Amino acid sequence: QGIWPEYLNLISEKSGLTFEIQKGDYRDYESLINDGHLLLLTNSTIAHNNHDELITSSPLMDLEISYVSLKSGFINNDYTGNVIALTEELSYVEPFLTQENPEYQFVYYDDSESCLNAVINSKADIAIQNNFRVSYLMQKPKYSDKLTQIPGQEYNNQMHLVAGSDQAMLMSILNKAISHISDDEKSAIVQKELLLHPYEFHFNDIWYKYWNWFVIAIIVIIIAVIVYTAMTHRMAKLKIEQHESEMLRAKLQLDE
After folding, report:
1. Are β-strands 61-63 and 105-109 bridged in parallel, bridged antiparallel, or unpaired?
2. Given this model, what pLDDT does residue 85 score?
3. What is the reported pLDDT for 80?
């Protein structure tokens, strides 16, 4: 599931091609291209590679970026800062932002979640990430409680299919299929994925959101166990005392 698998399914319907989706590292693009793979890359990533070895499809979809900061800073109108968390795929925004403010410092992380964690842990002032990814992760209680999206300049990107230079015929077929995908169909994919496949909560998320109730429940259970144990012990002691009293009474009657 996901936006891009759904998009590839749509291309498959329109082209008759069948895709097998594998996870890969875009930094190893040369060996993947040499092995005959198609790659799903942003145009900013493509710009860092050798165009003579690659041919790219028409844009599949525009990618908007989101700026994320601490919610407390935004409420206090103090969400600006010089340290910006990015992933490598968004490195294309660095020169634009440097022109805007030469004092910006850029820290690169492996994934979107690490960028958001850097803001929470005060290692960065702002995280800049793909809007689709941010919309998904912001459903996580840890982020929705502490982070918010803030205004920022639009430096949009686009997603392409990329192949080796010997795959011109394949790319022609792909481009024809892409040209027959309407904006409504693209929007339907995004809406479907965001609505039907929301963030799946894990135990850590539930613990983060309701830890105080868990603690209260544990305290109540402990108190209940202590009270039950004390009452049980008291009842047992009373029964023993009652039994001893009855035996003593019976003995006194026999002595009489």
Report:
1. unpaired
2. 92
3. 60
Tokens of residue 36, six digits? 């005959």
- What percent helix, strand, coil does the chain show, rounded to 5? 55, 15, 25
The more confident residue out of 255 and 116 is: 116
Give the β-pairing of 105-109 and 83-87: parallel
Give the pLDDT confidence score for residue 140 in this predicted structure. Answer: 84
**3-class DSSP assignment, residue 224:** helix
User: 82 by DSSP, 3-state: which?
Assistant: coil
Looking at residues 146-151, what average pLDDT do you find? 82
Residue 197: closest CA among 205, 189, 186: 189
Burial 78-95 (b: 16+ CB within 10 A, else e): ebebebbbbbebbebbbe
Structure tokens at 224: 């209940």
Distance CA 229, CA 157 (A): 65
Flag whether pLDDT at 227 surpasses 60: yes
Q: What amino acid is encoded at 190 in this protein?
A: V
Whole-model pTM?
0.56
Q: How far apart are CA 235 and CA 70, in angstroms?
A: 57
Tell me which of 143 and 52 has the higher pLDDT. 143
Reference 36, options 145, 167, 227, 142; nearest CA is: 167
